[in-house]
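Reading a protein record of the kind used here takes only a little practice. Think of the row as the fold of the chain written in a discrete alphabet. A record is reproduced here so that you can trace the correspondence yourselves:
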Amino acid sequence: MQRKRTKPVYLPLGYKLLISYLLLVLTPVIGIGSYAYVSSVRSTEEHTRSNLEVAVRQIASNVDYRLKDVVRSTDELYADQTLSRYLTGYHSGWEKYSIMSQYILPRLENAANLPDPEVKLSVYVSNPNVGEFYYNESATGDVRKYSLFHMDRIENEDWYRRLKLHYGSYEWRQVGNDRTDASISYLRPLINYDTLQLNGLIKMTANMKYIFSDAGSGQLGEDSILFIVDNDNRLLFISSRNKVKPDLLPSAASGYIQQPDSYMQIKQPVTNMPASVVAWIPYSSLQKNSQQVRNVTIGICLITLILLFLISLVMSQYFARSFQKLIASLKSFKEGDFHKRMPVQGNDEFAEIGSAFNDMASTIQRLIDEVYVVNLEKKETELQVLHSQMNPHFLYNTFSSISRMAKLGEIDKLHEVIRSLARFYRLTLHRGEMIIPVEQELQIAESYLDIQRIKNVDRIQVAYDIAPEVLESESVKFILQPFVENALEHAWYDDEISLIIRAYREGADMIFEVEDNGLGMKEELIGQILEPAGQGIGYGIRNVDQRIQLQYGKQYGVAIHSSLGEGTLIRLRFPCRPYQSVQDEA
């Protein structure tokens, strides 16, 4: 079984041009836009990360600056050899009071006041000969944040036992109540410079809010989190604890922090403390700038695409219109309108095509007009020959009927036949015009039918369905009578035959119909009758069909609808135009 081939999809040239332009436009725009977007996003993220790293380094630097104040305060005491001798020596009486009041306490007060007032200084000495001094808050709110204690106060503390201080060493630790008070202590040994042995402990306790105040300034963004961790990654301080999700905070038991996947981490060590500043910045905040870059890039690309699309549309429409003009002219030629011309504009290839097409059209029109005139004259000659052949035969049969009626004494019928015959010839030969009114063409058929009805003793039944508004329209002469005659000669198979003759307007066209209830015809016979090269049968029908087409165009002519045993319907179609006689035109 042969496979049926599918019909290819029709795609207009304008669409093809537009699609090709869009492909040429979209490829570079999408490529360049994608590269610009990726590069811009990467550059923005790197720039944002660089700015954040600078901000974290600045925070660490500020922390270092505050730590240096604490370190400098302890350096004043650690390097003071005179203070070391007073704290390790033995003094009594007035000398002891004088040394305490005039040197030891002023030195401690100076060291305590060097950094922020939030810093508290505690000095522990092994010499029991030195008296203790406590700071307290007075009623006025003045606080003296320095103290002098004996070592026996801390010798049994776990944190002190774990200390491994020696000459030149120091430690930052949360000892005693530091964790509860959110503080941290800077611990240094007090040295006896005569023996280089440890003679006590210098403890400078600072509030972590003071040391790490910059860690809560919010300069990294609202959703960012700042931690201060020790070298073991244990949490020392966190900014805005109440704004941090609980699942991000370390457990109280471990104290260790762990970076979540949704945050980027920036870590900067602190110089003067075994700790680091850790910043967590959510990737979503980094992507805000990327989204802005993406939106700007997409917006520019869309605007560019719209502009290029409009340009492509204009260009494709320009070329498509030129081709459509040519196609429209060719279609007009195909439909028989040889007067169509292609407008010529500009000075390009389309103008050359238009000029060549118009020249070709003029030549074809001239040749067609010549051939048309020759064919029309030929058809008119054939019609005259047909008339000359038909008239003697028709006239002979009619005269035979007249003779028979005279012999039978049918004077009334004889008179009526002679009158109809005279009317028939008067109408067919009147002035020799080939374009006549529809009313006159109907009268020719009616006169012929009157003669035939009288000859056949009223065995012919005729009905007329004529629209009054078409009577003054024009018609080619002698196109209706041949079909009436054909029906009476070939369709009759019973004692009677019925004919219906119609004339009406359908849109801009004029319609003649001849319908009978006779034998009917096969489809093969209809095809042979209307075949232009047909021989032997249907000459008169083809003659009428060709005369109509020569006069009005190929889209007009004769159509036959018939079924065996049901009759035949002949339909003639031509333009409906008002009739103007040759004398009126002259």
In short: The longest helix spans residues 13-78. The chain has a mean pLDDT of 76.
